[in-house]
Amino acid sequence: MMRSINHITFAVKDLERSFKFYTEILGLKPIAKWKNGAYLKAGDTWLALNYDEKVAASVRNDYSHIAFTCLNTEFLELKTRLLNYGCTEWSENKSEGESFYFPDPDGHKLEIHVGDLDSRLKNMRDDPWDTFEYYF
Asked: Which of 6, 17, 39, 122 has the fewest Cβ atoms surrounding its Cβ within 10 A?
């Protein structure tokens, strides 16, 4: 049985650029770094960056993405930092909580989000989506 997500790995074209983006812009904690990779932490989640020359920086046109939790008091500052870095918004927020959707330098789709699963489920119970089923 699955217990949790162990780690997330992103293939990156420019390790140094991606390392700076994730540590200096997003504020992830650096854990280790070597010639072709780095390990970072976001809370309890381990993120691996691995150099891969085959990476093409293009954003997929589906909704697949990874969301990072952000405090409400830090949301606008972080969103402004991302916009100043040159990030563009790839989707509008259509659910509860503040969100900003943006690509990283290699086109991986990311989101900063204020809220958690409990707040999302409360919102969905109060205003259910079509065919919503609750399993708890």
From this structure: 6
